[in-house]
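Appendix B, record 7
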Amino acid sequence: MQDNLEGVGILDNFINIPDDLLHFLKQDTYSLLIKGHTGTGKTTLALTILQALKIKENCLYISTRNSPDKIFQHFPWLNIFFAESKKSRLDESSETRSDLPLFVDGQLDEPATLFERITNQLMDAKSPMIIIDSWDAIGYMVDKESLITNTRVLQTWRERAGAKLIFVTDSPEDTTFDFIADGIVKLSQRHYNDRMLREIHITKLRGVRINRPSYVFSLHNSIFRSYNPYKPTEFSVSLPSKVSKQETRNSEPLFDGGHIATGYHELDNLLGGGFLLNSVVNIELDHHVNFRVVLAFLSKIIANFATSGNPILLQSFEWAQRNYLENCLNARLSIQQKKDLIKIFNHAQLKKTLDQFISDKKHVSNKNQPESFQQIIINTKKKFPKKMLLNIMELDTIYHFYKTEDINKKSQILIDFIRSNAELSIFIIKQLQNDIHAYGSGLADVHVKILEINGTLFFQSQAPWSPLYAVVVDRRHGYPEIELEPIV
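Structure tokens (predicted):
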């Protein structure tokens, strides 16, 4: 998702409100209470609802905290949605026009004036949407009993007018109006491993079944966007047409003279342009994350190397994993590219090289024995002298070869050899053992992790440090195209 939103179509693709809540919002009439402490995203959700429902007219947005000009300044996408920022300003000529969206500055209004504005809209307009942001400002100026009475009156008028009322409140612990509202959502934020995590909790939706009570969301680009739970079916592969393959080829160069492009815009930005030459990258998998996720993630990087004519060395995975990766690459690469550029090596070839390095014996070719991993790299570099080599393997394999010995000293020889010959090396860590993590962290220049939180997939970098990124899957081409979206 680009930072500069350039059209309503982009807004439509980016906005995502939980299905149960969206179903509730599409009802003819209701009252919704949006709760949350200051800074949790309540105003962003309220404004995003207008866009999600395509409400550009017959609505009233009363802000008791900010002027309309400030709202449009903080949420620039409103100018795209409403086409003209001048529509944000209420004047005498526009007050009587029901075809314009109304953003009202209620910062200095008395409660009686605010109630009058709301009731007039309910009486004069047909099925309007009215948002009061925030309801607390009215509560501070009137006693609780009067506020409840006036709220009941508004509810009665709302039902008669077939309107939609949204109340925003900064007091999530206050349950005074819970019995009156038809729907209640609560926004919160917390820290997860020193990363900001935002969650929406759906506690009441009258007339709608709540299938999932909470979702993680982001306020990136000042838009509310929730993220759906991980579904294994998202990572299935159906072979696309040749046109689709051509469309997915990267248009940006793989190497800019200093960095190797990752294929992921957010990751490139985090790393200052991409991976450095001859760097080692660790990708760690949470125990809840299926191995297919990391293979789908790596398939874009592999494709970027192959479409530029660069060779790739891949460690042989288990049959199911190897078959899945094969399908991912079939969707992105031609048969000839795979045949010419991708070389598979197995555990025995890697073990042979480890033994040779440790025993300090020179390699002796033998037609009856498999080619060692060391020789595979040497031969690949000779075959592609002016190309960049990508090497992908499981760190667990190296670790378990010598887990009872001095693994750091023994395997460091192999790592040094790989680093000096491969322009990029990626090690996958899939077993949750602290000793493997500690071992791997000491070898890598970059250490990233794919994890699951509240049923949703996320990406984060441990070194260098990064915020959480939601793992979003695009299946328009028939295979899982992964994108990373920051949790802001």
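Remarks on this record: Confidence is low (pLDDT under 50) at residues 84-100, 241-250. DSSP finds 19 helices and 20 strands in the chain.
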